[in-house]
Amino acid sequence: MEKKIKLLLVADTYHPKIDGTLVFMEEFMKKAKNDFEISQLVPNFNKYQDTKRKRFMKVSRFIKLSNYSSIRISIGNLLRIRRSIKDNDLVFIQGPAMASYLAMFMSWFYKKKSVVYLHVITWELFEKFLPRPLNKIFYWTFRYITVMLFNMCDLVIVPYHDLQEELVKAGVRTDVNVARLGVDIDKFTPNIDKIEAKKKLKINTKKKVIGYVGRVSKEKNVHTLVEAFQKLPNQQNMLLLIVGGGSEDVIDELKEIKNCRVTGFVHNVADHLQAMDIFVMPSLTETTSLATLEAMSTGLPVIATKVGFIKNYLTKDYNGEFFPRENPEILMLKIKKLLQDDMLSKRLSYHARKTVAYSFSWERSINKIKRILVKVFYDEN
User: Fold this and answer.
1) 216-239 as b/e, with b when 16 or more CB fall inside 10 Å?
2) How far is it, in rounded angstroms, from Cα 37 to Cα 26?
3) Is pTM beyond 0.90 here?
4) Cα separation of 344 and 286, whole Å?
């Protein structure tokens, strides 16, 4: 029997926080467990204990980016990363913060094969956290560091072709391969009984629910959605449902808004999507945006900004609508139009589900990634 490749999965996110990166990791582990001997190196947000297949890095109480605590730069963490890399054959890095950067460097230093999956455009993400003109310095600094580290890896995987071209233009000389993400279309499925879905979450069944799923952070631009919602007429007949966690100060502020509910991180995202009537993704930067794909798979009419891969799989007046970034007035008009035009809303919903069911499969995506990883390991090894 052929020995399995020992694969280390490195990420800067873990439970109880739930995002697209974690969703991918869990789907990958579920579908690749028979092909690789998988172990994990992840931040310890919840005082977990290390196990044989899982090592936890201690996190800083002071340094946060996009509402995620960074790992501590400590001897203990450096030793954990070093030990984890040396104990495995191949390092599969999810990014985009300190643990991932250190794993890229140490994999190169200890001559271990490494592959990065780019879930977030790092320099666009980090640019949002400092005032001008410092944000431009931050942008170019992180872009330079990220490109340098990518060039230390054996391969970079991206979810769509435009991003592949962008990385090459940015100076990435390492091979860049494309493998799109997927959606569990059996889990995220349209609910024909919207009233029952709302009752399940204790939502007034007479209210129209405008929803968002994701982090509550600067780059997600939730405040634009809030401003648009507050401009809508007949507020008493609506609910703004924000599904996700983030800065406690911002969440407390949102909870004070009339007809607005903020859930924090939840495990039953599908239940919340099924209770929505319209889904909005107001983000300033995305790669794939699994949350948008999951909303489309649920058969929701979607309004989104034209960022990342969204601009490729969303088509105006066919399976969704676009609005300009940071423009609450136009977003309000788009929401209002969908609330008033039931035929348009149903048409967008039908084609949204069809798009995801035909083109985004976890099975196809992860099978391709598994083949890529095996090829990287055996090439000139």
Assistant:
1) bbbbbbbbbbbbbbeebeeeeebb
2) 14
3) no
4) 26
Whether 121 has a pLDDT exceeding 90, the answer reads: no
- Residues 294 and 347 placed together within one structural domain of the fold: yes
Sheet holding 90-93, edge to edge: 54-57, 36-43, 5-10, 90-93, 113-117, 155-158, 176-178
User: 160 and 38 share a domain?
Assistant: yes
**Residue 173 within a domain:** yes
Dump pLDDT digits (tens) for 201-236. 999 999 999 999 998 988 899 999 999 999 999 888
Please state the rounded mean pLDDT for residues 29-56. 92
- Whether residue 210 sits in one domain with residue 290: yes
* Beta-strand pair 59-65/260-262: unpaired
pLDDT score, position 97: 85
The order of strands in the sheet holding 321-322 is 260-262, 238-243, 208-213, 278-281, 302-304, 321-322
Distance in angstroms (rounded) separating the CA atoms of residues 136 and 37 = 42
- 258 lies in which domain range? 194-359
Kindly state the percentage of the chain with pLDDT values over 90: 75
In this structure, what CATH number is given to the domain that contains residue 70? 3.40.50.2000
Instruction: Determine the pLDDT at residue 108.
Output: 98
Longest dimension (CA), the chain: 67
What mean pLDDT is predicted for residues 130-137? 70
* Residue 321 maps to a domain: yes
Q: Does 141 reside within a domain? A: yes
Who wins on pLDDT, 352 or 48?
352
Task: Tell me the pLDDT of the chain averaged across its residues.
Answer: 92
Which DSSP string do the residues of 209-262 spell out, in sequence order?
Answer: EEEEES-BSGGGTHHHHHHHHHHSS-GGGEEEEEEB-B-HHHHHHHHTSTTEEE
Q: Within this chain, do residues 79 and 128 fall inside the same structural domain, yes or no?
A: yes
Same domain? For 173 and 93 the reply is: yes
Is 188 domain-assigned? Answer: no
Number of domains in the chain: 2
